[in-house]
Amino acid sequence: MKKSLFAFMMLVALSLVLAACGGGGGDAASGSIGEATDYKIVGIEPGAGVMKAAQNAIDEYGLDNWTLVESSSAAMGAELTKAYENKEPIIVTGWTPHWKFAKFDLKYLEDPKGVFGEEETIHTLVRKGLQDDQPSAYTVLDQFEWTSDDMAEVMVAVEEGANPEEAAAKWIEENSDKVEPWKEGAGKVDGEKISLAYVAWDSEIASTNVVAKVLESIGYEVETVQLDAAPMFAAVAQGDVDGMVAAWLPFTHADNYEEYGDQVEDLGENLKGAKIGLVVPTYVDIDSIEDLKSK
Question: Which stretches make up the ABC-type glycine betaine transport system substrate-binding domain (predicted)?
Answer without folding.
Answer: 34-174, 193-293
